[in-house]
């Protein structure tokens, strides 16, 4: 029997990736393992992904001509960020380029206002929200959700907590509106959810509709930046884990997402913050799930899966955008913990390498990923992953390694 995919006349498809950060770098690693050629459009010649992808061109993704050159001869276009103008993607789609995810889906990861209205249409439980055009409108909104504080967000362009303000009075709204005016975007007001913790539900979905749901993760943010991820979310009732996965699968299907969809969630115990959340018939527990935001690309809350799942999110993103059968998203061990390595005043590129001797000697099962980025305080420069069957042990191992790389442990005394 012949296998069509292996016959000489069929060539391996080429994947174009826009964006040269660590997500593209790790997509590149997965592509290399599968022998899938990729072509990268990066912002700078020696950035994180450019170091790892031979076929890199440097250019501006705001320029349609540059995108056309990138995709010429490629089979699929995908992304390490969601900032490519939707009109350009629509033009490329009209040219016949397979944009995955497509512009009709990606707009929901680009614009939090569009995302919120769509979630309402789909009856997906979300924090109460409104688009607001001035400080007085924020006060009116606050009156409808039990008063200040409320959360203000730029509808577009935010990341790592930039573009998010917690405001306690009408007088504190100025910074948000100034930022929005400067960048020509709007402000979305949301009730401040009294959440118990933040969760993330990741799914991979292919154009033909196959989908795979990863175990629900707990993600711990510090100052708006993802700090630590624990899988599965400890103590999450089965009912809520299923609900989170079902929300992610439903959103992926309704929005026709292709590739990875990460749904950032709040787990709340306060029923007053609920909007259209369904009462569970089977359980008396008051916990609820609300959607915070969507990302349509591999996501920091899924980095654990590179080492901790049967199929990592980067490989499944590639499989999905190529419409190949998806791999199992199952965890390999009862517990997996990923901790980000953030740059600090104490750390530099050299001290990252010096850290290997200590952390590898201390923990032969630890996995370390460094992104080849210049170290700057607060910048994500890598992550570590530990897994095993004892959560406290796994947490301690992963935290110790990340702190060591950050230079927080007084290495000179050990
Ligand atoms: N309505 C809310 N109530 C309470 N906390 C919130 C709310 N919205 C956001 N937050 C907090 O602010 C953080 C950042 O918000 P959000 O995820 O919307 O912004 P972002 O900068 O786009 O994030 P990302 O880096 O994930 O793209 C959240 O992870 C959460 O900790
Ligand atoms: Mg977020």
- Unreliable residue stretches: 273-284
Order of helices and strands: EHEEHEHHHEHEEHEEEEEHEEHHEHEEH
Coarse shape: globular
Distance between the termini: 62 Å
**Count of helix runs:** 12
Give the C-alpha Rg: 22 Å
Tell me the structural class. alpha+beta
Biggest β-sheet: count, sense, barrel? 9 strands, antiparallel
Would you mind describing this structure in some detail?
With 414 residues, the chain is α+β, with helices and mostly antiparallel strands. It is built from twelve helices and 17 strands. The chain has helices spanning 22-34, 64-71, 86-95, 103-110, 112-121, 135-144, 174-183, 238-254, 304-308, 313-321, 349-362, 391-406, and strands at 15-18, 38-42, 56-58, 76-79, 129-132, 150-154, 164-167, 187-191, 195-205, 211-213, 217-222, 225-231, 259-268, 288-295, 335-342, 367-370, 380-388. Strands 9, 10, 11, 12, 13, 14, 15, 16 and 17 form a nine-stranded antiparallel beta sheet that branches. A four-stranded parallel beta sheet has the order 3-2-1-4, sandwiched between helices. A four-stranded antiparallel beta sheet has the order 5-8-6-7, with helices on both faces. A hairpin with a 5-residue loop joins strand 9 (195-205) and strand 10 (211-213). Helix 4 packs across helix 5 (112-121). The longest helix is centred in the middle third of the chain and has 17 residues, at 238-254. The termini are far apart. Residues 273-284 have low confidence and may be disordered. The protein binds adenosine-5'-triphosphate (ATP) and magnesium ion.
């Amino acid at each position: 029997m012949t296998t069509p995919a292996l016959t000489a006349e069929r060539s391996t498809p080429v994947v174009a990736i826009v964006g040269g950060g660590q997500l593209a770098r790790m997509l590149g690693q997965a592509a290399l393992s599968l022998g899938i050629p990729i072509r990268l459009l990066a912002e700078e010649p020696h950035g994180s992904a450019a170091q790892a992808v031979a076929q890199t061109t440097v250019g501006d993704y705001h320029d349609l001509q540059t995108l056309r050159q990138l995709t010429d001869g490629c089979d699929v276009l995908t992304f390490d960020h969601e900032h490519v103008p939707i009109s350009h993607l629509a033009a490329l789609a009209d040219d016949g380029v397979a944009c995955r995810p497509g512009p009709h889906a990606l707009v929901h990861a680009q614009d939090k206002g569009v995302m919120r209205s769509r979630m309402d249409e789909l009856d997906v439980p979300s924090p109460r929200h409104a688009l607001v055009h001035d400080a007085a409108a924020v006060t009116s909104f606050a009156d409808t959700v039990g008063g200040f504080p409320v959360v203000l967000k730029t509808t577009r362009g935010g990341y790592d907590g930039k573009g998010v303000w917690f405001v306690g009075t009408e007088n504190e709204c100025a910074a948000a509106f100034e930022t929005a005016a400067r960048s020509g975007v709007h402000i979305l007001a949301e009730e401040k959810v009294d959440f118990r913790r933040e969760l993330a539900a990741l799914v991979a979905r292919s154009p033909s509709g196959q989908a795979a749901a990863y175990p629900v993760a707990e993600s711990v943010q510090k100052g708006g930046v993802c700090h630590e991820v624990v899988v599965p979310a400890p103590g999450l009732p089965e009912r809520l884990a299923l609900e989170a996965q079902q929300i992610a699968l439903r959103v992926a299907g309704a929005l026709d997402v292709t590739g990875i969809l990460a749904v950032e969630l709040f787990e709340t115990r306060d029923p007053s913050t609920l909007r259209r959340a369904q009462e569970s018939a089977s359980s008396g527990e008051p916990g609820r799930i609300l959607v915070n935001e969507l990302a349509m690309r591999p996501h920091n809350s899924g980095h654990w899966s590179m080492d901790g799942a049967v199929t990592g999110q980067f490989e499944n993103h590639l499989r999905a955008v190529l419409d190949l059968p998806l791999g199992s998203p199952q965890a390999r061990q009862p517990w997996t913990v990923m901790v980000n390595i953030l740059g600090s005043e104490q750390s530099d590129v050299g001290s990252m390498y010096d850290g290997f001797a200590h952390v590898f000697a201390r923990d032969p099962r630890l996995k370390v990923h460094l992104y080849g980025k210049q170290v700057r305080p607060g910048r994500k420069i890598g992550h570590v992953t530990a897994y095993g069957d004892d959560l406290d042990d796994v947490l301690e191992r992963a935290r110790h390694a990340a702190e060591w790389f950050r230079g927080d442990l007084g290495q000179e005394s050990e």
